[in-house]
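Batch manifest line 318
LIGAND: iron/sulfur cluster
JOB: complex structure
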Amino acid sequence: MPHTLLLAEPRGFCAGVVRAIDVLDALLDAEEPPIYAFHEIVHNRHVVDGFRARGAVFVDTIAEVPEGARIVFSAHGVSPEVVAEARERNLRVIDATCPLVTKVHLESRKAAKDGFDVLLVGHEGHDEVVGTKGEAPDRTTVVDTPEDVAAVVAGDRPKFVVTQTTLSVGDTDATIQAITSRFPDAEVRNDICYATTNRQAAVRSIAERAGLVIVVGSANSSNSVRLAEVAAGTGTTAYRVDGLSEIDPAWYEGVDVVGLSAGASVPDSLLEPIIEDLRARGVTRVEPVIVAEETIEFRPPSELLELAEAAGTELTSS
Ligand code: SF4
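JOB STATUS: finished
ARTIFACT:
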């Protein structure tokens, strides 16, 4: 049974997720429910269920939202089409899109306007990719793997490369290399965010020393799934779980050192029962493995600040 637990640092909540959660939290404190959110506010089942219990309603289409209602756009961002539909329905929007996702939207929009074809490296169908592609749907091709590059229509326009923010750093390098091999003049922006990069470096660091790595995060959380893949890529055994109840204690047999990390949408409270359970099983040493210090914070959305000003309150989360 394990005697040592390595804790990846950083792990868990990033600045964009904290901001989106704070927005919904503050609105649920300040206004009568329901408060609508377009898609899950962040990709974590526990966080979403908690908000649902307080009166948040998560929708996948604007048509589901009553005229004039309050709606929050989630951290993953939305396409201009969704923004327009919300405006037509007179919805009172607070946009909690992570500023680092907004940056990719702006890059794509400008590149298309400047005459480029946009190659968006990312996972087709992921909320963030759907939103970014929506900036220039006719000019954007989603490229998921190096193998996809051969199928890109060459066309006459130069190519501009952007990426989803939560991809595997290593896999993305390979895809970008395949793109620049075929289109040597392509302009490349690698948009993998600081939180994704740091969490992957930290999980790799613990995985190199652990016989087993557990990553906490939901199945629809791209960055959590990537963390488990990065850990497994070092040759160790790695599992992604939503919480303690999904851990099979048989995984610990014959393992001396366990590593633990969590995706960017995961509260640390979900890791505490796992740590306690490991202590009860005989872990005597808990070692944080720090690869980066994070100090980034994002300002609340301007709409929330205006709302607070109008109400003459500090509209802060509880
Ligand atoms: Fe923003 Fe990165 Fe967090 Fe996504 S993972 S919300 S891009 S900081």
